[in-house]
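### Sample
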Amino acid sequence: MSNKIIMLFVFFVTLGVFAQQNEITTIKNVLDAWHKAASDADFDTYFELMTEDGVFLGTDATENWQNKEFRNFSKPYFNKGKAWSFAAVERNVYLDEAKNLAWFDELLDTQMKLCRGSGVLKKVKGEWKIAHYVLSIAVPNENVGDLIALKKVSDSLLTTKLKEKYKN
């Protein structure tokens, strides 16, 4: 009797591992399709892969795009025939226990060289959708000092403006 219980336990654990791996593969495919849609200037597919309340945070400190604003910002780029081209060279995906929420990080080969993307996907009507995406430029530690000097003035001006805005 105990061998049967152990075999059933192993079977269900294995089944769970396969189910989780299948979800992760599906999520990776969604992210790849999303990046491809941008590269192909496929506006409809790109935004169909995001939630209606999706958020895109760009590399500029002022780029906190809610879905509708991001659509408006992006449309001229897509209309030109190519928006941007990101290809994952490394990616990690994590799932919650219910397999309805996932988060990820990825290194991307882009026109800006290496960038980091990270975000959250959630299941909407059985399909994985990107709910939140953060894009950042990867800066080698030895170059951070130079980068800080380069953006010191613009960051100071923006920081002052934002502090005033949030005081009120």
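The helical segments are 2-39, 43-48, 67-79, 144-167. This sample (Nuclear transport factor 2 family protein) is used throughout the tutorial notebook.
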